Amino acid sequence: MVSNYQSPQIIDMNKASKEDLLEISEIGEKWAGTIISLREEKGTLTIEDLEMTSKIPSTIWDPLIEKGKIMFVEKKEVLGSMTLERAMTEIKHLQAEITRQSKHIATQDLKITQYENALITIQQQLTCTTYKIKTTTQHVHNEEERNKVTTQHEHDEEERNKVREMECEMNELRSRLLEQEKTWMNRLQQVEKKLKQAEMTNSKSQCDPEHHKISTLESRIQKLEEDNKETKLALQEVLSLLKDQNKIHSMSRSLSTERSRSLPGSNDIHVHVPLNFKRLRT
Q1: Alpha carbons 92 and 78: distance in angstroms, whole number
Q2: Using CA of residue 198, residue 200, residue 202, residue 208, what is the dihedral sign?
Q3: Cα(109)–Cα(282) distance, rounded to whole angstroms?
Q4: Which residue, 52, 87, 223, 243, has most beta carbons within 10 Å?
């Protein structure tokens, strides 16, 4: 850059070019470059700016000012003479920065939109997963309830089978008791019939007292022996019937806990023992 500044006496540090600065014997090429760079960075220079830089000794500036070799034009004057090129450069720089920030903001907005969409997707997945968990839990609960019902049904069926088996056993015992009762009644009827026949024989033979007496005694002895045997058999039958009846009562009591109603007649089985034995006449 070629400067139009031609003053041989005083050099304005805010307008001088590098060549102008090199005309000052105390400033070499390196320091001139440092001054130009610092001025481009600051925009305008003051004596304080040059004294604060560590690249140039601060002791050279006061003598140069005193000798009238350099000066610093006020800031407002420098601003008034800012070149159009520098202003356009700054404007372009600002526009580039605005564009960069706009792109950055657009990128951030896009990322925010993507994050929001991802969050919505995750929330939907979470809702779906929660529904699946609830559905699975309900299915497991229903399956457990069905298993409980099935187990209870099997248990009830087993109990019903036990009740049916006990009913069959009770019916069988009842049939046996009825058969034994019939047999026992027939035997008693036969004994009564024999007693009647003996009485009739006794009444016919009264004409012969001695013979009748002997025959009667013999008949009585024989009859007593037979009656003794019959009585023993009858007593054994009665004992057997009583044992069976006790067994039925026990089964009835246990059966009443298994079902709500009792079997009709299961607790009302009685053994009728006719006691109309007639004494033999002496």
Answers
A1: 21
A2: negative
A3: 136
A4: 223
* Of 232, 221, 230, the residue nearest 280 (C-alpha): 221
Look-up of token digits 């109603």? 261
The position carrying tokens 């087993």 is: 158
- Express each pLDDT in 218-263 by its tens digit: 777 787 778 778 778 877 877 888 887 777 777 777 766 666 555 4
The structure tokens 């470059």 sit at: 33
Q: Is pTM beyond 0.85 here?
A: no
Angle between helices 84-204 and 209-258 (to 10 degrees): 170
Spans of all domains in the chain: 11-82
